[in-house]
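Regression test case RT-17, inverse folding.

Input:
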């Protein structure tokens, strides 16, 4: 049996995913445009459908790779191949979801830059370790060369996961928050100016709308962009701490250093990232 390159299997999915993100960002989460193609089903998915969708995707990859005998695995039994190609893509998908959740406050491009290379390295190390078990019947390879070998396969899968998570969040963010917080939460078409500005504790941008936290734990979603919000809130004791975040000083519990990054822990438990270009200005203002 001729071994099929897994990168070829994932290429069309990656291209379709890229188009979906561009369409979603261009039209905003409230647009009438419904995503189509590979990730079209993700846009309308809820918390139950999301794991089912990922499970189905892993199962599809497992079947394709097993039938094709990917990476010269056609010499082992079909049941062995199915086990192998369920475990490996399952680990890649699960870890990409977890890692992306830790960087979801970053711009979309930065999420790809943080998640994809890390998952490639992690997956290579895990597969390398599996070669010391009966699951992967191959001798271990030099690790650096092996990372480069698996990258064309693992990177598109990681990119697809980040894309799916972005689409899930872009579509379901306001709806999920509304169902959790009650009927008072809605997307206001008249923007931030319609809210009591002196009660704003923090604001975060999501493409074409703003998530705003008000005193008392109330949450609102309004149409608008961070630049406009920062201008409206400029008279208050607060600051735009990141390209996507404005924070009131009174809402700050503490500032934490995490590696090379600084994060504001807010009194409601939310973490707001501090943009590196804003560190000096915030230090001069006594925030840090």
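Golden output:
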């Amino acid at each position: 049996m001729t071994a099929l390159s897994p990168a070829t299997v994932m290429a069309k999915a990656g291209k379709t995913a890229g188009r979906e993100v561009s369409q979603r960002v261009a039209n905003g989460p409230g647009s009438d445009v419904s995503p189509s193609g590979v990730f079209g089903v993700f846009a309308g998915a809820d918390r139950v459908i999301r794991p089912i969708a990922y499970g189905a995707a892993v199962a599809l990859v497992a079947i394709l790779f097993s039938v094709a005998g990917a990476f010269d695995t056609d010499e082992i039994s079909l049941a062995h191949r199915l086990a192998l190609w369920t475990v490996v893509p399952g680990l890649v998908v699960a870890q990409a979801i977890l890692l992306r959740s830790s960087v979801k406050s970053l711009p979309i491009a930065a999420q790809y830059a943080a998640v994809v290379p890390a998952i490639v390295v992690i997956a290579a190390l895990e597969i390398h370790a599996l070669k010391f078990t009966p699951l992967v019947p191959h001798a271990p390879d030099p690790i650096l060369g092996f990372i480069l070998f698996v990258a064309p396969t693992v990177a598109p899968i990681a990119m697809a996961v980040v894309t799916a998570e972005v689409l899930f969040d872009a579509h379901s963010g306001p709806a999920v928050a509304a169902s959790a917080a009650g009927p008072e939460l809605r997307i206001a078409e008249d923007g931030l100016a319609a809210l009591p500005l002196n009660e704003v504790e923090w604001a975060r941008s999501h493409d074409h709308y703003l998530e705003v936290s008000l005193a008392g734990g109330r949450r609102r979603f309004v149409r608008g962009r961070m630049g406009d919000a920062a201008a409206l809130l400029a008279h208050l004791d607060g600051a735009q701490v990141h390209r996507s975040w404005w924070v009131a000083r009174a809402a700050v519990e503490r500032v934490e250093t995490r590696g090379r990054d600084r994060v504001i822990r807010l009194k409601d438990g939310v973490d707001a990232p501090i943009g590196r270009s804003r560190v000096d200005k915030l230090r001069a203002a006594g925030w840090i």
